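Q: Is it fine to ask for two folds in a single conversation?
A: Yes, each is treated on its own. Send the first.
Q: Here.
A: Result:
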Amino acid sequence: MINAAVFASGEGTNAENLFKFFANDTRIKIKLVVTNKDTAGIIGRAEKYKKNVQIISKESLENYTEQFIEFLKLEKIDLIILAGFLLKIPPAFVKAFPNRIINIHPALLPKYGGKGMYGNKVHSAVIENKEKESGITIHLVNEEYDKGEIILQQKCDVLENDTIETLAQKIQKLEHEHFPKAIERFL
């Protein structure tokens, strides 16, 4: 069985979707949730599904990387799933978990990726640039923001009357449908 850790910084709707999807799966156990915000909605969702929660600050992630990697290895974590985690993963993590860190991005990479491009910032840029389509990209994490090997992309139309909110709803629907399926490829 694969033990996974989900890293999230926000509300945790993708994480909760993964908790439900893999609840009775004998191939994977989501063992741990890691967040960098002690007020993040993911904490309540994780507690609801009886997941252990680890809160780690940006400074701790950067300055105590080796210790945190050791902690994850003691927890027997095989796979790291980034579900809206807003901190850059240190290079030592990429080396410690080669091709075992998966991220979901709310755009069709390589467009609208990189530092500071997340959530509504991405949707706003897509609408401002009058793109005809947007979507999600699920990719492996490497040392650069949003530059890892693409595992899966799914598209949706961007209509003239779409707002940030309506586009976000379309993207979230794609995320909830396809993120678990992409993770299954690693089981």
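Q: Second one now.
A: Result:
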Amino acid sequence: MDLETLWREYKECGNLVARDKILAEYTPLVRYTAQRMSIGLPKNVQLNDLVGTGVIGLIKAVESFDRSREVKFETYATHKIRGAILDALREQDWVPRLIRRKAKMVRNAYVELEKEIGRTPYDSEVAEHLNLKMGEFEDLLSEVASTSIISLNEVITSSFGESTEISLIDTLEDKEAENPLDRLGTEETKRVLTEALLALAENERQVIALYHYEEMTLKEIGLAMGLTEGRVSQIHSKAMLKLRAKLLLKI
């Protein structure tokens, strides 16, 4: 029985056997997504645990997927899988408090400097503001890299009237992809987020696009850009901190 028939059997007839076959078909997507998200996580976070949580997201995706919309199931399911894994990671509070404090310190440095000089500060200016040498600043970016994993998937709550549900990843333009959420926030919120992304340096935008849209690993991005995996991780961390700083200033 092909996938189209399985979907019809489940959605129109409630056939649970068909549902289970659909789940089996897309189980590799769960492992793939979990493997990508495991990059940079502490060693105590087990891949099998992420996969198990991701399966819950896949089940929810199959149950809630609306086939009448022109949205690829893979796109919709990936979002649900990521969301389930991220929810579990947040509940575990897997990032050490010291690392969170350091990430907040760097983010606040970007906020303070942008207020002072009216533009996104250069790396050297942030390092000087923190009384760090450039090498020390780059080491700090590597150290706080794990806190940037959830950044593009976090829901942004705006203060423009009603609360909205829109994540940073939804503001990156992908003209060919359908939006699986189909729940957009206010135009003002989207404008602020888009401006924040466009204000990033070219290599920062490229890393974000390759990692979050092309779904390349940090190692693959490094090979494509002629950079080390560690350097790509630093660029990704810096981009996330800049985005969060701009959102604090504007939302």
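Q: Anything structural to flag on that second result?
A: Two points. The chain is about 65% helix and 0% strand. Confidence is low (pLDDT under 50) at residues 150-185.
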